[in-house]
């Protein structure tokens, strides 16, 4: 059970600062941030919501283990779908 | 404790006095004159608070705090925090150690640099460890540098005490509203108590925290400037109320900035084509609010990592790579810096005395209408830039009461090179749009072609006052216009 950061991440550091298990680190070189799949608890037992995806400002940057976005397009900005940036 | 005599032992007389009854000393008069002497002493050499100081002292920003705890609809985190800086330019993210080294390298090489700010991308107080370790090191190692910080305010009440421990005497809070219903249109969510809180509820938390933070800072004798982003149709009618509220709580300046939003920035407002205010709308709001509170009109929404004096950016000389190779003897640098600062102070004091007499010998009837003029200047308070090289113009108002600084108009902001600038020569079209309401433009030189275009747009180009002090030049042109009968027709203010 772990969340995953994908390459829409803009390396803003916010998730790293709030993770209760210290599971988030910067990727090597200029790659995006990464979640340690072995230590991430999805915040179960610590908080009601996974902290990383609750502070992440970028839609579709963090995914559930099944690959679906925790914050789908439009869910944070309220932008209509036709304004979706090309993924 | 906060009364930092950064520039050493300047006496009372060296401090430019704001109370020029003639109104001829530009920004000093309309921004600083209402301040108490102690506040004035703290800000007169701060390039962000005084137009005069802006010509002589420099500031720099470092980006050490990338994370943010809220979302603003004018921000896209890939760019700098729009709270303080123009979006669209990515800052180089530095570690606190690198930021300290860079700051000291710049201070040693550009002695006019008096202020270091931590701004976007991100909110400094959402990254407290990085922000405060930078401040701690600088307070110890470079005590002659003032520190400033800008914040969205959400975390501010928690750090009010910590903020008193460093060389910080001004904090900027961006407050766009005091009404949560309006707030919900600006802030889609905040991260609060380990949850993402959306809409009106989130906006209310942010507003309450901002106000609480403002009160706490004022209690601790830290100067608070409030920035607001003017969003036509959203908070434009509300900002006079914001001005009233923050003033009543003790904020010493309120600075209304225009929204800058382009679709290519990828922000919500950019993509939704929310427009920014026209220069005229901005000025009207600033005038409306200034009845209520003295506004800071010369804010340029500096690039967060810009280095150098007004209008220049020497950032390329201070890349991390070059800095690593520099040897800095800061003890020696401080001695040199003090000399330069003392000389500038003397110069500023002299300039203030001189400009007080600008309109003493000319009697222009009190009912004569005021005129706006645009100035191309590279700094130093002089008309000293070629029209074609100006990326921004300083707008001054001449009236029977004298000459006062009104605002900056950036030309590149109004010209996107596309069809927004109208037909024909789009760059010049953009400049003309930016200069809306001005009747003359003063520069050191101007080409024949732009001369004609400006003239036919009702803006009189004037290259006769090259290298003169701006106030003197503006006054001379105003007197000339009066003598030529241009101010006596019953035509009121030109709005062309
Ligand atoms: S879900 Fe929780 S534990 Fe997992 S990475 Fe995100 S913040 Fe850390
Ligand atoms: S909060 Fe989101 S965008 Fe920021 S570093 Fe984490 S995953 Fe990337
Ligand atoms: S506070 Fe600054 S960094 Fe945070 S969302 Fe607003 S503009 Fe962006």
UniProtKB/TrEMBL annotation, chain A:
Keywords for the protein's UniProt record, in alphabetical order: Iron, Iron-sulfur, Metal-binding
GO MF entries: iron-sulfur cluster binding; metal ion binding
InterPro entries named among the record's database cross-references: 4Fe4S_Fe-S-bd, 4Fe4S_Fe_S_CS
Protein name per Swiss-Prot or TrEMBL: 4Fe-4S binding protein
PROSITE patterns, A to Z: 4FE4S_FER_1, 4FE4S_FER_2
Native organism: Blastopirellula sediminis
Domain 4Fe-4S ferredoxin-type: 1-29
UniProtKB/TrEMBL annotation, chain B:
Sequence ranges of Basic and acidic residues compositional bias: 1-13
Entry-linked CDD domains: NifB (cd00852), Radical_SAM (cd01335)
Cofactor requirement: [4Fe-4S] cluster
SUPFAM superfamilies assigned: Nitrogenase accessory factor-like, Radical SAM enzymes
Stored InterPro entries: Aldolase_TIM (IPR013785), Di-Nase_FeMo-co_biosynth (IPR003731), DiNase_FeMo-co_biosyn_sf (IPR036105), MoaA_NifB_PqqE_Fe-S-bd_CS (IPR000385), Nase_CF_NifB (IPR005980), NifB_C (IPR034165), rSAM (IPR007197), rSAM_sf (IPR058240)
Keyword Lyase: yes
UniProt KW Membrane keyword: no
Pathway it works in: Cofactor biosynthesis; Fe-Mo cofactor biosynthesis
Leader peptide range in chain numbering: none
Sequence similarity: Belongs to the radical SAM superfamily. NifB family.
Protein name: FeMo cofactor biosynthesis protein NifB
Gene designation per UniProt: nifB
């Amino acid at each position: 059970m772990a969340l995953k950061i994908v390459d829409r991440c803009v390396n803003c550091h916010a998730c790293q600062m709030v993770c209760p298990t210290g599971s988030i680190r910067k990727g090597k070189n200029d790659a995006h941030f990464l979640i340690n799949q072995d230590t991430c608890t999805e915040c179960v037992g610590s908080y009601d919501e996974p902290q990383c995806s609750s502070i992440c400002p970028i839609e579709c940057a963090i995914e559930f283990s099944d690959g679906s976005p925790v914050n789908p397009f439009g869910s944070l900005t309220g932008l209509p779908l036709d304004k979706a940036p090309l993924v | 404790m906060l009364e930092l005599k950064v520039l050493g032992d300047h006496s009372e007389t060296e401090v430019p006095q704001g109370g020029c009854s003639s109104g001829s000393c530009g920004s000093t008069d309309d921004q600083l004159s209402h301040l108490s002497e102690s506040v004035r002493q703290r800000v007169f050499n701060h390039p962000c608070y005084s137009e005069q100081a802006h010509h002589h002292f420099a500031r720099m920003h470092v980006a050490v705090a990338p994370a943010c705890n809220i979302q603003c609809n004018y921000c896209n985190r890939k760019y700098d925090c729009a709270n303080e800086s123009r979006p669209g330019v990515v800052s180089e993210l530095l570690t606190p150690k690198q930021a300290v080294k860079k700051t000291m390298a710049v201070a040693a090489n550009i002695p006019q640099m008096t202020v270091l700010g931590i701004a976007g991308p991100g909110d400094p107080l959402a990254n407290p460890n990085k922000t405060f370790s930078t401040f701690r090191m600088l307070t110890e190692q470079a005590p002659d540098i003032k520190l400033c910080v800008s914040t969205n305010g959400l975390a501010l009440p928690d750090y009010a005490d910590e903020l008193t421990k460093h060389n910080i005497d001004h904090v900027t809070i961006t407050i766009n509203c005091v009404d949560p219903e309006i707030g919900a249109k600006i802030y889609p969510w905040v991260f609060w108590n380990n949850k993402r809180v959306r809409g009106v509820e989130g906006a209310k938390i942010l507003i309450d925290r901002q106000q609480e933070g403002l009160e706490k800072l004022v209690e601790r004798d830290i100067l608070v400037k409030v920035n607001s982003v003017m969003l036509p149709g959203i908070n434009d009618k509300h900002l006079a109320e914001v001005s009233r509220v923050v003033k009543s709580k003790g904020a010493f300046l309120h600075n209304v900035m225009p929204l800058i939003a382009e679709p290519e920035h990828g922000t919500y407002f950019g993509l939704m084509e929310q427009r920014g205010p026209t220069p005229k709308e901005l000025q009207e709001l600033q005038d409306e609010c200034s009845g209520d509170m003295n506004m800071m009109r010369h804010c340029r929404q500096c690039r967060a990592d810009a280095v150098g004096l007004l209008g220049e950016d020497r950032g390329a000389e201070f890349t991390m790579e070059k800095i690593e190779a520099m040897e800095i003897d800061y003890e020696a640098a401080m001695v040199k810096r003090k000399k330069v600062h003392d000389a500038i102070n003397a110069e500023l004091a002299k300039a203030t005395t001189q400009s007080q007499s600008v309109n003493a010998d000319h009697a222009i009837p009190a009912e004569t209408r005021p005129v706006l003029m645009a100035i191309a200047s590279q700094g130093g308070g002089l008309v000293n830039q070629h029209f074609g090289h100006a990326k921004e113009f300083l707008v001054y108002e001449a009236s029977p009461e004298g000459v006062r600084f009104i605002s900056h108009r950036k030309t590149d902001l109004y010209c996107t090179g596309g069809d927004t600038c109208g037909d024909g020569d789009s760059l010049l079209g953009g400049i003309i749009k930016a200069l809306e309401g001005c009747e003359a433009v003063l520069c050191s030189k101007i080409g024949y072609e732009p001369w004609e275009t400006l003239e036919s747009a009702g803006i009189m180009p004037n290259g006769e006052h090259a290298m003169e002090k701006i106030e003197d030049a503006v006054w001379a042109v105003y007197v000339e216009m009066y003598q030529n009968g241009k101010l006596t027709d019953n035509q009121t203010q030109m709005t062309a």
